[in-house]
Amino acid sequence: MAAVPVPGGVVHELPADLRAALVSNATALEAWNDITSLARNEFICWVEDAKQSTTRERRIRRTQEELEDGKRRPCCWPGCAHRERNGK
User: How many whole angstroms from its chain centre is CA 73?
Assistant: First the structure.
């Protein structure tokens, strides 16, 4: 079975646990592939910013749920502080 290609963000690479969650959820993966790389970057940064593993797991679940609901950015996240104003 071939690996499913899943794109990452602009600044952040896609972490393995988030990738696995997306691959296991066809609806979320389809939405993930439809959003921009900057939007993917926001979700990745939001997940990576979690300090505790339980928070990280919850954010991964919420990422799936928000993508399923048609959201294109993480709710209540001020944005990735790691990218420059020019979007890179």
Answer: 9
Amino acid identity, position 48 = E
The full 3-state SS of 30-88, as one line of letters, equals: HHHHHCCHHHHHHHHHHHHCCCCHHHHHHHHHHHHHHHHCCCCCCCCCCCCCCCCCCCC
- Three-state DSSP at 72 gives coil
Higher pLDDT, 20 or 3: 20
3-class state of residue 12 by DSSP: coil
**Cβ proximity of 54 and 12 under 8 Å:** no
Q: How confident is the model at residue 81 (pLDDT cuts 50, 70, 90)?
A: confident
